[in-house]
Amino acid sequence: MKKIYKNIIVCFSAAALLTGCAEELDLDNPTALSIEELLQTNNGFILLSNGVLDAYQKVPANEFLLTELRSDNVRANSENGNYPDFNAYNIDPNNGDVATYYSNNMSTIKVANTLIDNRFLAPESQQYTIGEAYFMRALCHFNLVRAYQNIPYVDKILDVTNDEAEDYPQLPEAEVYAKIIEDFKTSIAYLDGVELNRYRPSAGAAICLAAKAYLSQPSPDYTEAELLLASVIDNNDAYGFSLLASDQGSNSNAEHFANLIQDYGGVFGNEISGSFTDGVPDGSWSNNDGFEINEEVIFSISYDLASSDEYVTSDSSLGDQVQTDSESHSFAMTLQGPSNGVNIASLDFLDYMTPALQPVRFYASIDAISYNPSIPTNDTFNAKFPTPGEIGDNDWIVLRYADVLLLYTEAILAGGDSTTDSRAVDAFNQVRKRAGLNDEANVTKQILLDERRMEFVYENQRLYDLIRFGEADRVLQEFSNNNSLFYTNEKKYLPFPQRELDNLPGFYKQNNGY
Q1: For helices 127-148 and 96-117, what crossing angle results, to 10°?
Q2: Which segments of 268-319 are extended strands (E)?
Q3: Could you tell me the pLDDT band of residue 249, with boundaries at 50, 70 and 90?
Q4: How far is the C-alpha of 345 from the C-alpha of 439, rounded, in Å?
Q5: Which residues pair with 391 in a beta bridge?
Q6: 208: closest CA among 194, 224, 193?
Q7: At residue 129, does pLDDT exceed 90?
Q8: What span, in angstroms and rounded, lies between the C-alpha atoms of 321 and 459?
Q9: How far is residue 499's CA from residue 96's CA, in Å, rounded to a whole number?
């Protein structure tokens, strides 16, 4: 087993945190003797922290459907189950994926709160696990507020036998972001000086995600975001972060493009089979776990390829999800996605993602074999996650250094239309250069948004980028009109799960438009 989860003794389902484990721990009751005994063992906090990361493996399982499939990057075939409903902005509060995504994040939060509630018991050598718990609690709430907007912020283990849940109402998103940022900052204090492990939260990752939260809140704080991101970029060597780019040869040299294509694919742990002809790959991509931990990855969720009948799918019911290292972050984004007609590039996206316009990112993002521009309705699939579906081997990258560089440019742009600030231009052009593109002297808001679209396609960023840039209504309404979809300005956010409304009748309010 290639990753950190080999010694995890805590397994989780989306609704009940402990089922079928060799050593059962009653996480519903953090004062139970078994929990106290565990937390006082030599490695109890480490095991629970591993359990938080293990629980989070479920979160990306259906995220693609709720984010990328609701952007202008991709589409779904009309005959494939409920996938077209996501694509058409036509889902309802009873949708299973909408409920599961909420539950999976909340389940991870619950495990994180187990550590935080017992943080004073942590020995000095395991204090970092408390920082990891604060980080993961913040990350899950960050996922939820961007998806559902007004959510409760759960900062303790709730006693299901009383009415404690009523102490956690839906909060305005500005208040949620304030708590997210506070948690990320608390995690920085705990994680400062801890050796970097890209499969675990780090101080550098917390700094960057706090900055992203500053940029994402309703009233962005560009100054704070810029200061945080600059502290990482100006010291990136010390943090261990940089772009993966060999940069060999001149811009017109085929070897140069071949190297950059391999570099960009290598960010995701992929390697090309076969050779290159005039800078164009002859073979196909496959995952190589030896490439997955590289200097561009800041924080990644591990997945392991294994033969198993017990793995999670986005369609699994809450009661039958079994946690194993063989689950994939999202079958819809892997080689099985095309067979279900899910991760098909939109025609709008393919106007920009062409071999001529994107000589590097095209070949590492798009399945060149399925690409046929002579047939406008042709199904073109993604190549970033070339693993076999439900038990795929690709890790899921939560944050990478290219994102940090472009977020820094965004912070300096500060909501304006353009910037020639040398710091922003330099950060922006580092990403452009790795993509085999010419430098820009003046970075506009639209150029930056377009660059993010090409760089992070299939990484579940496009929808949130559009919302953060204030462009979601304009872009998605036009996309919807052109494709006979059902977007309205209220559909930027998911419906609050009906199950949550039913659990506390009259307490939570449904989002507008549902």
Answers
A1: 150
A2: 270-272, 276-277, 280-281, 285-287, 297-301
A3: low
A4: 27
A5: none
A6: 224
A7: yes
A8: 24
A9: 10
pLDDT (mean) for 350-369:
94
Q: What is the pLDDT of residues 36-82, one digit of tens each?
A: 777 777 888 998 999 899 899 889 988 999 999 999 999 988 766 78
CA 281 to chain centre: 28
Give CA–CA dist 394/350, Å, rounded. 24
Average pLDDT, the chain: 86
- Higher pLDDT: 156 or 389? It is 156
> Which residue is listed with tokens 């389902």?
13
Interacting residues of 314 by C-beta distance below 8 A, sequence separation 6+: 61, 62, 65, 97, 100, 330, 331, 332
Q: Are 429 and 335 in contact (CB under 8 A)?
A: no
Average pLDDT over residues 393-402: 93
Cα distance between residue 148 and residue 143, in whole Å = 9
Of 244, 187, 233, give the one whose Cα is nearest residue 210. 187
- 133 and 116 Cβ atoms separated by less than 8 Å: yes
Helix axes 173-191, 127-148, angle to 10 degrees: 160
Q: Please give the DSSP secondary-structure letter assigned to residue 270.
A: E
Helix (H, G, I), strand (E, B) or coil at 438: coil
Q: What is d(CA 85, CA 486) in angstroms, rounded to the nearest whole number?
A: 9
Instruction: Name which of 12-16, 89-93, 418-422, 433-437 the model is least confident about.
Output: 12-16
> What is the helix (H) or strand (E) element at residue 95, kind and residue range?
none
**16 conformational bin, left if phi > 0, alpha if psi -120 to 50, beta if neither:** beta
